[in-house]
Amino acid sequence: MDILWLDDEDMKKVLTMDKVMDAVKEAFKEHGLKNVRMPPKIYLNLNEFNGDIRAMPAYIPSLKTAGVKIVNAHPDNPKKNLPTVMAVVILNDPTTGAPYSIMNGTLLTDMRTGAAGGLAARYLAREDSAVIGMIGSGRQARTQLMGLSEIMGIEMVKVASKSRESCVKFKEEMKELICGDIVITTVKEACDCDILVTTTPVTAPIIKAEWVKLGTHINAIGADARGKEELDPLLLKKSKIVVDDKAQAFHSGEINVPLEKGIITEKDIYGELGEIIAGLKPGRENDSEITIFDSTGLAIQDIATANLAYSLAKSKGLGMSIPYNPLS
Predict the structure, then answer these.
(1) Fewer Cβ in 10 A, N or C end of the chain?
(2) Most distant CA pair in the chain: distance in Å?
(3) Per-residue confidence (pLDDT) for residue 221, from 0 to 100
(4) Residue 328: inside a domain, yes or no?
(5) 69 counts as catalytic
């Protein structure tokens, strides 16, 4: 029995945002219809190193595949040549449990997160949205913009980050993606937009409620662990909040701190993105709503995207087959 290994170069050859968005959309739909099995992600805290390691398993019956992603988050990685996030995904045959593919999951993680942001905006942002505000200018910001560019015409991107150098690099790398301008600005000015994207690792709010105008949609991406929050809790109080998964979001999403403090309750959560995609609940209902998508990152996104990568790699003859004998 062989296991197909896909490295970073293989993943770059098969993962495009349009295809990843299609795969992630179906995964969210199945999640909304309660047709997947996905326990909340498990965290191994490494506080002394300002990091953690996470295990994210899922089974998607419609794809006939199961698997797990192992991923870290080290915002201040001491080895500067290594990214904040690195991941490996293992796919298993659900019938036998046998592994049949192992792949580099770092690009996959960025792409599936960007795909989720694009999908959220498709269902929750105003149809006339054209100006994007981005708080954070790292890898996640890049794929968020890629996802948004798939669903709308972008006239302007306002980007703010703690490092102007990072913003300059972001502008240079992303200017070919959109027809409009990319402007480096302040956090407050970036909030004057149609769609606001936050991709920071902060543990205290940096977006004030009064900076966000009616009709704005927000993709809150950065808060993916207990204690993290990017948005003023008062902003949550006056917004329609959509999460990717309630069980995860209650403990590790943008809403985790306000929930723990009693500022909001579980009743303040409108629903899950999968419910909207599946047609069980409406998305945006008027142009004055402030909508928030609280993204914690789901294992079903990883497994659906990994399944896509595996299928495309097999059809293109990519990857390296590794002999595997479970009895040895």
Answers:
(1) C
(2) 63
(3) 96
(4) no
(5) yes
